[in-house]
Design a protein that fits this description.
The protein is α+β, with helices and mostly antiparallel strands. It is about 20% helix and about 25% strand. The protein contains 13 helices and 19 strands. The strands form four sheets. Strands 8-9-10-7-1-11 form a six-stranded mixed β-sheet. The longest helix has 13 residues.
């Protein structure tokens, strides 16, 4: 009996929208790391006001790529230019389908000659693995998959631990750990530092706005390194960040983590769907939200709609180049932050305590997403759909419910729109959805990044190329 694939799952389901909107996968889990170490409000506050330790050791795929054709594989599958990409640099990797739609994204680390690691969600890793296996490339691939969403008490092990030290006091902690001054390299450049007598690799990063580092090393050393960081950071107010607060940092910094991988249709992608397993991210993932279309293609997005337009470089051949060359960037939707109306938010929460009134979709804090990929309708004053709200939650720092969205290009900052919160007809069969009624929430079109700190201090980089 032939092994089941995504293609066979789709054939049996009929309509991929129906399949994904009613997936029984449940919530997208940030695994293993404790939900809270202090409380999620204090943990959010720390990344803007003191310092925070992010533990990224478990929720992402690490795909190690090595061999003479490693860079060619990456170049052939990325909208990004590889000119100037060299050892000890990192780059956000964005692949598109032959039709020009985004599959996903992640970070590529240039570790050594002919040696890379991709770190991110599964869709882009799967795309790389497929072409490595079928494209005739002279490469070796090692996949270190994300940790199980629910380990159920079983031990978990990764190749590497991966931390970030972020916040306005992060560099003081970093230099204390290192034992002296450490050069603040340019954004997304890599080096080394000392921690607890060990050499660890570093990436100049800044997820919370101020200069910080992403660091990694062998998983066996994780607890020793973590303890040293927290001890050194005590006097600077460092706070370890739990898995509850961690994903909400993107609301302030402006990255949309989870667009639907645009691979469910098209003859040119049939071989890929046959390669993907019936248990793959793409086959088991879910779509949530008020935007509903019978056509799965209406959920696909191009690079400009997600703020990746500046990454598109036609100085090399890549999958999707011909399709992207036909797009006029000036007419595409733009990535923005939507700041949700406080009175409307209060109405949503009040419904929890009104047994006789309307029951609105639960808005979890600090992250309100309830599917792998989130698609809520954004409408104008006439009720016309003008965009998609795609990542939703609450910032204690900004005292606001926020969402990251892509909206029609002509809509300026300051415009009041509405987000339709909740699913139609009482909700889908997803395990994360309770019976509820939809509500329209007023929202103000705002800049990306929304956080004033991030907006004013970020290096020109992966999240600041586009601002409404």
């Amino acid at each position: 009996m032939a092994q089941r694939s995504l293609e066979t799952v789709l054939e049996q389901a009929g309509n991929p929208v129906e399949l994904l909107r009613n997936s029984q996968l449940g919530a997208y889990v940030y695994p293993v790391v404790a939900a809270e170490f202090h409380n999620w409000r204090s943990e959010q506050w720390a990344w803007q006001h003191s310092a925070v330790l992010f533990d990224q050791s478990h929720h992402m795929v690490d795909l190690f790529i090595s061999g003479p054709d490693a860079l060619k594989l990456i170049s052939d599958t990325a909208i990004n230019s590889m000119k100037g990409f060299s050892v000890n640099k990192a780059k956000q990797y964005v692949p598109t389908t032959p039709y020009g739609h985004v599959i996903g994204d992640g970070i590529l680390f240039y570790l050594a000659e002919n040696e890379f690691v991709y770190v991110g969600r599964a869709p882009a890793a799967n795309w790389l693995m497929f072409h490595a296996e079928t494209g005739g490339y002279d490469v070796e691939i090692l996949k270190d998959d994300r940790s199980p969403s629910r380990p159920m008490g079983k031990p978990v092990k990764r190749v590497n631990w991966r931390f970030q030290i972020q916040g306005p006091r992060a560099w003081e902690i970093i230099e204390k750990l290192h034992g002296g001054p450490l050069e603040q390299l340019k954004f997304f450049n890599m080096s080394e530092m000392n921690i607890a007598g060990r050499k660890v690799r570093t990436l100049r990063h800044g997820m919370s706005g101020a200069p910080g580092l992403e660091i990694w090393g062998p998983y066996e050393e994780q607890e020793e390194i973590r303890a040293a960081i927290l001890e050194a950071g005590k006097e600077f107010g460092i706070v370890p960040c739990g898995s509850r607060a961690y994903p909400s940092n993107t609301l302030e910094s402006g990255w949309i983590p989870s667009p639907l991988p645009a691979i469910y249709t098209g003859d040119k992608l049939k071989a890929y769907r046959e390669w993907l397993g019936a248990d793959s991210y793409e086959a088991t993932g879910s779509i949530g939200g008020s935007f509903v279309s019978d056509k799965i293609e209406d959920y696909y997005l191009n690079p400009w709609e997600l703020g990746y337009g500046p990454f598109v470089k036609f100085d090399h051949e890549f999958h999707g180049r011909e399709a992207l060359e036909k797009i006029d960037p000036a007419t595409q939707r733009q990535k923005v932050t939507l700041a949700w109306n406080a009175e409307d938010m209060a109405k949503i929460f009040a419904s929890l305590f009104d047994p006789d009134g309307e029951q609105y979709k639960f808005f979890d804090l600090p992250l309100a997403n309830y599917a792998s990929s989130n698609y809520d309708r954004v409408v104008d004053a006439d009720g016309r759909t003008v965009g998609l709200s795609m990542f939703t939650g609450y910032s204690f720092n900004e005292k606001s419910a926020l969402s990251l969205a892509t909206i029609d290009h002509g809509i300026p900052v300051g415009t009041e729109l509405k987000v339709v919160w909740g699913e139609p007809n009482g909700g889908t069969r997803k395990t994360t959805v309770e019976p509820h009624k939809q509500i329209e929430v007023r929202a103000i079109v705002s800049s990306v990044p929304y956080s004033r700190v991030a907006r004013e201090t970020y290096q020109e980089g992966w999240r600041t190329h586009q601002s409404a």
